[in-house]
Amino acid sequence: MSQEQSYTIEEVAQFLKVSKLTIYDLVKKGDLPVFRVGRQMRVDRADLQAYIQKRKTGSTPAAAQASIATPTKNHAKIIVSGQDLVLDILAKYIEKRRSSKVLRSHEGSFNGVMALYHGDCDIASLHMFDGDTGDYNTPYVKKIFVSHAFVLINVVSRKAGFYVQKGNPLEIRSFEDFQTKTFTFINREKGSGARTLLDEQLRIHGIAPSTIAGYAHEEMSHLDVASAVANGRADVGIGIEKIAKLIQVDFIPLVTERYDIVLLKTPENQPLIDMVKEILKTPDFQAEVAALGDYDVSLMGQVMYETL
């Protein structure tokens, strides 16, 4: 089947004039079938037409109702939001234990957490630095999930910093260089963990974003930022160490960030929480992640914050 006969989640959302989160919710409920091409979810054209036709007629034959009924909780699809490769490994381990599909949504930190808040995913990852406390993630989730029960669990710690061109010709070393040196920057989208780190550091150092050439130029992933630096579209970008090993750029480490996941605490969600905690403590899982390199697994599986 060619990709011309199928659509991305974004294309389906644009076609139906709804948000991507609405489409992810339909996928999660089993109302709209998907298949995967690499890390991307796609919707077959015939399945989309069938979904539209079913909604147009307002009736579904009994046999069709049975085939698309929401699965039981033990076999319901799980959606994991976040961009790090470690989440793909976690999804694989969950799939093995549940014998059911785990879907991946590659949202940045804030969008993923808001998807969880609205019930559009089951596990959201985040790496959001708070300049007032020097802490990662906890200050944000405590404010976002007010009056909601949740648990925040560490997955890995990793280095974040600047991508620079090979040899670091501009000798970029720190956030203070925004004040003393002239270069073209490339940014991440608003709400991403990397963007949060940058904006908080600029605030701490009293640097106005308007003084930074390229600040308004946004990319949607660490890989896109590193690629822009590698091909000369920018001198400096911000991201994580792992990606620098895949692209021809140098990496200037600035901070060690905590990469956590958050899950809502509900009676029906407790088996998933227990499973994730167990997986993260499994020696095989920790060894597989450590083998990737550039990850610190010493806090993996540790509860960083949990409501009663």
From TrEMBL:
Q: Which InterPro entries match?
A: DNA-bd_dom_put_sf, HTH_17, PBP_domain, SinI_DNA-bd
Top-level division of the source organism's lineage:
Bacteria
- Signal sequence span per UniProt? none
Gene3D superfamilies reported for this sequence: Periplasmic binding protein-like II
Q: Which residues form the Helix-turn-helix domain?
A: 7-55
Q: Which ranges carry the PBP domain?
A: 96-280
> What name does UniProt use for this protein?
Excisionase
From which source organism is this entry? Lysinibacillus boronitolerans JCM 21713 = 10a = NBRC 103108
